[in-house]
Amino acid sequence: xxxxxxxxxxxxxxxxxxxxxxxxxxxxxxxxxxxxxxxxxxxxxxxxxxxxxxxxxxxxxxxxxxxxxxxxxxxxxxxxxxxxxxxxxxxxxxxxxxxxxxxxxxxxxxxxxxxxxxxxxxxxxxxxxxxxxxxxxxxxxxxxxxxxxxxxxxxxxxxxxxxxxxxxxxxxxxxxxxxxxxxxxxxxxxxxxxxxxxxxxxxxxxxxxxxxx
Length: 213
Ligand code: AMP
Hints:
Adenylate kinase; nucleotide biosynthesis; metal-binding; binds adenosine monophosphate; 9 helices; five-stranded parallel β-sheet; 15% strand; ATP binding; single chain; 47% helix; alpha/beta
C-alpha cells in the first residue's frame, strides 16, 4: 500500500504517518527528516537544503525528487510506504506518478489531514522536536513524559528553527501556493481522502484506519 500524507505544516500529518506506518508495517519516509539528518551530519545536501528550510521555503524539486526516488528504491519499500512531506509540489507528484507507472504501480491513498490556518500557528509554537531521533511532541497535546526530554532516546527537545512564528507564516504561504494544489491533483485521480485534523490525535487516526481498512 502506497500512502501519501497531505496537509499544512503542523496539521499533524507526521504524527499520523508514524502511526499508520507502525500499524500497517510500512516504512515511514519523511523528506524533512532526511534533510534534517543530512544537516546534522554536515553533508553537502544538508548544507544546500538548510538554506531553504531556514527561510520556510521548499528545497528545489530536483534535489528532493532524487533523494526520494533513491529512498523508495530500497528493499524495505517493496510492499509500500507512507510518504510524509512528499510530494509538496505538482512537479514532484508528477515525477512520482511517472516512476510508479513505469512499474505498473500507483499511489493508493492520499490522506489530507485538514486543519484551518487559524489553528496552525498556535500548534506550531507548541511543537517540540528531537533532532536526534526525529520524534515530535506538543507541549499541550502530546507532551513528553519528562519536560524537554525525548521519551524515545533521552535527547533534549527543541523548537525547530522552521517552527518559529515568523517562519511558520512563510511556510503556510508556500503551502497554499505550492502544495495545496495537490489536493485537486489526487482528487482527480480518485485517491484523495480527507480527515478532520482538528480532532484529537486518536480520533484522527481512527478515521484514517476506517479509510485504509
Ligand atoms: P517537514 O519536516 O516535512 O515539515 O519539512 C521541513 C522542511 O524541509 C520544509 O519546510 C522544506 O523546506 C523541506 N522539505 C521537506 N520535504 C520537502 C519536499 N517534498 N519538497 C521541498 N522541500 C521539502
